[in-house]
Structures are given as structure tokens and as C-alpha cells.
Automatic annotation (TrEMBL):
Pfam (any one): Zn_clus
InterPro entries noted in UniProt: Fun_TF, Zn2-C6_fun-type_DNA-bd_sf, Zn2-C6_fungal_TF, Zn2Cys6_DnaBD
Matches recorded under Gene3D superfamilies: Zn(2)-C6 fungal-type DNA-binding domain (4.10.240.10)
UniProt KW keywords: Nucleus
Domain Zn(2)-C6 fungal-type stretches: 36-66
SMART domains (alphabetical): GAL4
Name of the protein in question: Zn(2)-C6 fungal-type domain-containing protein
MF terms (GO), sorted A to Z: DNA-binding transcription factor activity, RNA polymerase II-specific; zinc ion binding
Keyword Ribonucleoprotein included in the entry's annotation: no
Stretch list, region Disordered: 1-35
Taxonomic superkingdom: Eukaryota
Basic and acidic residues bias (residue ranges): 8-17
């Protein structure tokens, strides 16, 4: 009897227990709000309305538009205020986790909700994707900062081009960016020689990656990338000059090793002749024609000792007479090179009747001479033909006017000294004048008396 009563009691329970399955569950009370951010509304999750970003957006690294919409009504936000960078989440999707940021930005409809325009968020997608290569790191950020604040002021006569326009181009074309970093690293090497080995390695790495890409793109140049390839080829030329000259190797611009800069310079000429300056100076680096030079390097006191008119007419006319009577094979190319060189001298230094007292800001005039030279003359320099080497020595005087730029420093003397080592002693008298102009008088006296 007792057992049956206990069995009956065990089957009877009270519904007062909170764990009773028969008891209907009660919803936890909470304060309802319609002021959550739109990201949480899209995902239909509770927003804690934290400012300036709610915890859900912080958790998933989403750009919280809550701060833009809610705070903008109370606080004044400048039009150029920059938004925090977007970080792509890499965790697997699960309940409550948003779509990957790339899909969310590129295709907002994929989430099933309408596109919402955020006028204050400006994240332009790159038009060109870089080839797989070593990613940028803090060293590269340091180099980029140094380029914008220092190196860009020292690369050419047009400071606005190198400081303001070229960096915008570099963000679209990775090989331009790498060449900017390479030049920045070499600039650091020049400024901090004692501990410069690390910068030299960074410069070489960025230059080599960019050079491979530029070489592959030159054959398919078009209006879309001609500006970038022009800037890239100019930077490659500057990089070649910025590298420390090999004193013990083929010196200067002479011989098999030194002749390399001529062919590097041909890359610039190829781009210009293929597309034209009007097409090149459009878009990011426009307008065409380019603006007038702004006066050169950042330090206005940094001038060349040879700045101003020099009496060049008599020595160059004597050289032209000598070349006209030369029986050297290919003398026609030598005469053409001589005439072009005299024209460059006339525009840089003026004449005795109308002298020029400011020779800086004429890079385009100086570099016109190697621009017009044919392959015959370049071959003569490569083969150490005396007359060609003499003309190159006179060109070194023009190079000296560019040594206000750090990457050209020392090239005038280095070239003359290299020519002296390779030139037939019977022709040394012909390079006496250019050597005097670049300050090698004492060296000449010692070499002629020993």
C-alpha cells in the first residue's frame, strides 16, 4: 500500500519549478531601441550603441556607420576627415558573423539588403593588382615617409610633380611605388653612410622587383600606363646614377660596364617616342605641357660651384674642327654628336654676348644630348674610340650642372677620370679644358709631369 502511494507521488510534480519543462518560458525583459547602427540592423543582432563604434563592429572590424550618422548630427566632422582602415576578417562564417569585407564592399546586395551610400567613407579600389611579391612592411612605410618629406624634394626641378603627383600614381601602379621606395632607400644611404648597408639592400630589392615588371610591360605600353612607365623609366635612370660608382671597375660612363646607363636611358626615349608627351602628361601627372620648374632642391643654398656662364665657344669650335678632319670610321656620327653638344652648351651657358648666369633647372637640356645620340656613337664609346671619349668628357661639364641633385654628385669627375684611364695618351690634351672646368687642374699637372 505504501509503495503504491509513493509511486503515485513520484508521478505528481508541481509546476512551480523554473526548470519544469511544462512551464512556458518567459522572455527576459530588455529595453527596446531603434537607434542601433545599420550594420547590426542588417545582421539583426542587438547593438549596444557604443560610440564612436559599437562593440559588434569593433569585434568584426567593420566600419561602424553608427558614428557617422549619429555623431555627425552633434559634432562637426571635417570633409577631409579620414576613416579608420578596413581590416578583412579571416575567421570562418557562423551565425551572427557578417560576410567578408571584400564581398560586403564590392557587392552589398549579397547580404540581401539594400545598398546604403556612405559619403564620408572613401576607399577607392585599386585598378591594378600587384604581382605576388614580398609585402610592404614597417621598413617600407619608413621609406615612403622619407620619400614624401625629403626625397621627393630632391629628384628634379619640378617639385610638385615628384612630391604631390607621382605618389598618387604610385598607389595605382606598384612598380612606381617600389621605385620610389628604392630611391628613398638610396637617399637614406647617402645621408647615413655609416649604417647604410640595410638601406642599400632594401633599395636593391625594390629596384629589382620593379625592373622586372617594367621590362615586361614596355612591349605592351598603352595610354592607360604610359604615364606610369615614363615615371618608372626616369626613376630607373636616376637609380642607376644614385648607386655608388664602381671606382675599381669600369669607371663612369666608359667601357662595357659604364655604357649600361645609355641603354637604361633608352627606356625613357622609347616611352616618349611611342606615346608622346601629351599622352604621358595626362591624368595624375598632368597637365600638358608640364608646369615650369620650381627652382630645384629643397636646400636653396645648395648650388654648384660651376654655376654660371663659362667661355665654352673656342674649345668646342676647335674640337669640331678636329672632328671634321678625322679619318676615324663613323666620323659622321661624331660630327652629329659634336653639333648637338654645342647646342646644349648654348642653351645651358648662353654665349659671350648673351651669357646665362643661372644654369640650374635645365635638366631636360643636358639630357637632350644622350637622347639624340645614335647607336653608332654609343658603340664608339663602348669601343673606346678616342674622339667619342673626348666628346663624352665635354658632356661631363654639363653633367656637373646636375650635381645639385644628390644622385648625380661625383659623376662629372668620375667620368673624366675614367676617360683619362682609357684614352690614348696622344689625345689627353683634348680633355684638358673639361678637366679644368670640373676642378681637376692639380690632378692634370701631376699626370702630365710623371
Amino acid at each position: 500500500m505504501m509503495g503504491s502511494e509513493q509511486d503515485t507521488a513520484s508521478r505528481v510534480h508541481e509546476h512551480t519549478s523554473s526548470r519544469c519543462p511544462c512551464r512556458p518560458m518567459q522572455r527576459r525583459t530588455h529595453q527596446k531601441s531603434r537607434n542601433g547602427c545599420r550594420n547590426c540592423k542588417r545582421r539583426r543582432v542587438k547593438c549596444d550603441e557604443g560610440k564612436p563604434s559599437c562593440s559588434n563592429c569593433i569585434r568584426f572590424s567593420l566600419p561602424c556607420d553608427f558614428s557617422v550618422d549619429q555623431i555627425a548630427s552633434n559634432d562637426t566632422v571635417p570633409d577631409d576627415a579620414s576613416a579608420p582602415p578596413v581590416v578583412t576578417p579571416t575567421l570562418a562564417r557562423r551565425r551572427g558573423r557578417p560576410l567578408k569585407i571584400e564581398k560586403w564592399i564590392l557587392n552589398p546586395e549579397a547580404s540581401g539588403h539594400k545598398t546604403i551610400t556612405e559619403p564620408r567613407l572613401h576607399f577607392p579600389m585599386p585598378k591594378r593588382i600587384a604581382d605576388p611579391s614580398p609585402p610592404l612592411n614597417t621598413n617600407d612605410l619608413e621609406l615612403l615617409h622619407h620619400y614624401i618629406t625629403n626625397t621627393s624634394l630632391t629628384l628634379g626641378d619640378n617639385v610638385v610633380l615628384w612630391r604631390d603627383k607621382v605618389p598618387r600614381l604610385a598607389f595605382e601602379f606598384p612598380y612606381v611605388l617600389r621605385l620610389l621606395l628604392a630611391m628613398s632607400a638610396l637617399h637614406q644611404t647617402q645621408l647615413h653612410a655609416p649604417g647604410s648597408s640595410g638601406y642599400q639592400q632594401l633599395a636593391t630589392a625594390h629596384h629589382n622587383i620593379a625592373l622586372r615588371e617594367v621590362t615586361g610591360l614596355l612591349s605592351t605600353i598603352s595610354g592607360k600606363d604610359c604615364s606610369a612607365l615614363y615615371i618608372a623609366t626616369v626613376l630607373i635612370c636616376n637609380y642607376h646614377f644614385a648607386k655608388p660608382p664602381a671606382i675599381d671597375d669600369e669607371p663612369g660612363m666608359v667601357g662595357e660596364a659604364g655604357i649600361g646607363w645609355w641603354y637604361v636611358f633608352r627606356g625613357v626615349r622609347f616611352v616618349v617616342e611611342s606615346m608622346g608627351m601629351e599622352a604621358i602628361f595626362s591624368g595624375h601627372i598632368g597637365p600638358f605641357p608640364p608646369e615650369a620648374p620650381q627652382g630645384g632642391p629643397a636646400d636653396p643654398l645648395e648650388t654648384t660651384s660651376g654655376d654660371g656662364y663659362i667661355p665654352w665657344e673656342r674649345p668646342l669650335v676647335s674640337l669640331a674642327v678636329m672632328l671634321s678632319g678625322s679619318s676615324t670610321l663613323g666620323s659622321e656620327s661624331l660630327i652629329v654628336a659634336s653639333e648637338a653638344l654645342m647646342e646644349c652648351y648654348r642653351e645651358v651657358y648662353g654665349t659671350a654676348d648673351k651669357p646665362e648666369y643661372r644654369t640650374h633647372g635645365k635638366t631636360y637640356v643636358v639630357m637632350r644630348w644622350p637622347w639624340v645620340l645614335g647607336d653608332d656613337f654609343v658603340g664608339q664609346v663602348q669601343n673606346l674610340v678616342p674622339e667619342a671619349l673626348i666628346l663624352l668628357a665635354y658632356f661631363a661639364v654639363l653633367i656637373q650642372t646636375l650635381e645639385r641633385f644628390w644622385y648625380m654628385k661625383g659623376w662629372a669627375k668620375h667620368t673624366i677620370m675614367g676617360i683619362e684611364k682609357k684614352l690614348d695618351p696622344a689625345y689627353l690634351q683634348w680633355i684638358q679644358w673639361p678637366r679644368n672646368q670640373i676642378g681637376l687642374e692639380r690632378t692634370i699637372e701631376k699626370s702630365t709631369t710623371t
